[in-house]
UniProtKB/TrEMBL annotation:
<feature type="domain" description="Cytochrome c">
    <location>
        <begin position="43"/>
        <end position="146"/>
    </location>
</feature>
<dbReference type="GO" id="GO:0016614">
    <property type="term" value="F:oxidoreductase activity, acting on CH-OH group of donors"/>
</dbReference>
<dbReference type="InterPro" id="IPR008168">
    <property type="entry name" value="Cyt_C_IC"/>
</dbReference>
<feature type="binding site" description="covalent">
    <location>
        <position position="60"/>
    </location>
    <ligand>
        <name>heme c 1</name>
    </ligand>
</feature>
<dbReference type="GO" id="GO:0020037">
    <property type="term" value="F:heme binding"/>
</dbReference>
<keyword id="KW-0677">Repeat</keyword>
<protein>
    <submittedName>
        <fullName>Cytochrome c, class I</fullName>
    </submittedName>
</protein>
<dbReference type="InterPro" id="IPR051459">
    <property type="entry name" value="Cytochrome_c-type_DH"/>
</dbReference>
<dbReference type="GO" id="GO:0005506">
    <property type="term" value="F:iron ion binding"/>
</dbReference>
<dbReference type="InterPro" id="IPR009056">
    <property type="entry name" value="Cyt_c-like_dom"/>
</dbReference>
<dbReference type="Pfam" id="PF00034">
    <property type="entry name" value="Cytochrom_C"/>
</dbReference>
<keyword id="KW-1003">Cell membrane</keyword>
<feature type="binding site" description="covalent">
    <location>
        <position position="207"/>
    </location>
    <ligand>
        <name>heme c 2</name>
    </ligand>
</feature>
<keyword id="KW-0249">Electron transport</keyword>
<feature type="binding site" description="axial binding residue">
    <location>
        <position position="61"/>
    </location>
    <ligand>
        <name>heme c 1</name>
    </ligand>
</feature>
<feature type="binding site" description="axial binding residue">
    <location>
        <position position="208"/>
    </location>
    <ligand>
        <name>heme c 2</name>
    </ligand>
</feature>
<feature type="domain" description="Cytochrome c">
    <location>
        <begin position="325"/>
        <end position="415"/>
    </location>
</feature>
Length: 446
């Protein structure tokens, strides 16, 4: 996660508001209302387990091969590593002595038991919309069902003075959200339920909404067309989920969205980057009613671009590739490296190799996903609904920056696609920031 701008904002807010903090710091700490974890019924605990998957708590709180929810997962930032906390019910090193109220404040307001503010790497701004009864179920699950693990929290790798936590409270005051006080009414239909899951536990907006100057989500209101209109995470572009047919979900049916969230693919697309983990760890475990609710809500989001003409298929590139008259570096690089799987027609193979023609991932203005995918390759998520998962090799050590820019520019302007050219400078930057392998030494070709 890129936190450069967050740091800048934090430092400046620290300077501006410096002294005022001391007076306020104590107000947060005081909360002694107790609620005993015992006595929670089985049903509530099971509900909590389901919600913990919907909230993907494990993605950030369980290390690969580590004990569930013991924390220590590193989230990279330019100022240093932020490590997630131990949220097992261990009394010394975990959250074992948190009351429901203290748990609630950590999850929905980003305030730890000692009153300090959490880094917004914990998606508490989104979780503010989780309804009180769901917070209660989560608490019952963590307190009763998760095994306590004694594992001290790791200090951040952020050097002093940036490691000071108190400026974070100003960030929270500016960009935090007030927790909702009531539950969704029982009469809420699927669209309302979908809105609730997307905004809250699903925290879809943390990746799919662009970030502002202070690294806050540009908007948390779905009345604003920037909501879910696309954001960059770890070198991938978490594309627009709005109604545009060129680069949003306009051409996806509700059934396509459900299939994607459940199995990690549709007949013409496959999940990669951060979305692969979201599906593998979280959405594939959600029930069909909730996935249908999410899909029906996403289909209500209006396009972000005003008059965007829809794409129409065009076979000029296919005919040229097949006739053997292609001569540009982009076309030849495609024939040599991509056509075996994605075919000269760009149609791929249903359910196996994604279709590149008329694909909204390919047609997004921001080409980051495509560059990172070609550099590093990808593996479709493993899901119960689609256990055979195919992969794409990485081309970082086989193709130069120029080859990758050329082949993607070709892909983005063929078969009816209509997206801006990719430059070698964009490839060069992502090769560096994603830690991809060095290019082959081929001076004649950039
Ligand atoms: C995108 C990553 C991410 C997700 C998803 C996430 N967390 Fe966190 N969480 C963090 C990080 C990072 C911290 C530590 C922040 C800090 O130290 O400032 C944290 C801290 C916490 C804390 C505070 C621990 C303490 O010591 O006070 C609690 C409680 C918590 N998370 C619960 C949850 C629950 C419950 C879920 C799922 C509903 C969840 N988190 C999902 C990243 C995440
Ligand atoms: C950790 C970041 C992250 C989170 C959280 C996240 N996404 Fe994604 N999502 C991505 C990335 C990156 C992509 C682009 C890669 C791809 O298409 O698979 C993506 C792609 C998608 C696509 C595919 C669109 C297409 O045209 O191919 C859908 C649908 C989607 N996300 C829905 C969701 C929903 C619904 C949620 C919340 C439940 C969510 N995402 C949460 C990162 C995320
Ligand atoms: C061995 C077969 C194979 C080759 C060769 C291959 N790909 Fe892929 N491609 C895949 C698979 C499988 C996926 C899905 C990957 C995932 O989900 O992580 C994919 C995904 C993609 C996507 C994302 C589409 C979407 O919506 O999910 C793009 C764009 C892409 N490939 C472009 C290329 C380009 C350009 C080349 C050549 C430089 C290439 N591929 C070479 C198999 C291949």
């Amino acid at each position: 996660m890129n936190m450069k701008r967050l740091t800048a904002a934090l430092v400046s807010s620290a300077i501006v508001a410096g002294a005022a903090w001391a007076a306020l710091a104590f107000a947060d700490g005081a909360n002694s209302a107790a609620s005993a974890p015992g006595g929670a019924d089985k049903q509530l605990i099971e509900r909590g387990r389901y919600l913990a998957q919907a909230g993907d708590c494990a993605a950030c709180h369980t290390t690969k091969g580590g004990k569930p929810f013991a924390g220590g997962v590193g989230i990279d930032s330019p100022v240093g590593m932020i490590y997630s906390g131990n949220i097992t019910p261990d009394k010394e090193t975990g959250i074992g002595d948190y009351t429901l109220e203290q748990f609630d404040r950590a999850v929905r307001q980003g305030i730890a038991k000692d009153g300090s503010t959490l880094y917004p790497a914990m998606p508490y701004v989104s979780f503010a919309t989780v309804q009180p009864s769901d917070v209660k179920a989560l608490y019952a699950y963590f307190m009763n069902e998760v095994q306590p693990v004694s594992q001290a929290n790791r200090a951040t790798g952020i050097p002093w003075p940036l490691s000071m936590r108190w400026p974070l409270r100003f960030w929270r005051m500016m960009f935090g959200a007030t927790p909702v006080t009531g539950d969704l009414p029982a009469s809420a239909g699927p669209v309302e339920r979908g809105r609730y899951l997307v905004a809250g536990l699903g925290h879809c907006s943390e990746c799919h909404t662009p970030r502002g100057m202070g690294l806050q989500m540009e908007t948390i209101s779905d009345a604003n067309p920037l909501y879910l209109s696309g954001g960059v995470v770890d070198g991938y572009f978490a594309k627009s989920l709005r109604g545009d047919s060129k680069d949003g979900l306009g051409t996806w049916s509700q059934a396509d969205i459900v299939a994607f969230l459940k199995s990690g693919r549709t007949s013409h697309a496959a999940a990669f980057g951060g979305m692969k983990d979201v599906i593998q760890d979280s959405t594939q475990h959600m029930d069909d009613a909730d996935l249908t609710a999410i899909a029906s809500y996403l289909k209500t989001l209006t396009p972000v671009h005003k008059a965007q003409a829809p794409l129409t298929a065009d076979d000029t590139a296919t005919l040229k590739l097949r006739a053997g008259t292609a001569t540009s570096n982009g076309e030849l690089t495609y024939l040599d490296n991509c056509a075996a799987c994605h075919r000269t027609s760009g149609a791929g193979y249903g359910g196996t190799f994604p279709m590149l023609g008329l694909n909204p991932v390919v047609n997004s203005d921001n080409p980051s996903s495509l560059i990172t995918l070609v550099l590093k390759g990808g593996q479709m998520p493993w899901t119960q609904a689609a256990p055979t998962h195919y992969g794409m090799p990485g081309f970082a050590d086989r193709l130069t920056d120029r080859d990758i820019a050329d082949v993607l520019t070709f892909v983005r302007s063929s078969w009816g696609n209509r997206a801006p050219a990719v430059t070698d400078a964009q490839v060069k930057t992502l090769r560096k920031t994603t830690g991809a392998k060095a290019p082959p030494n081929r001076p004649e070709n950039g």
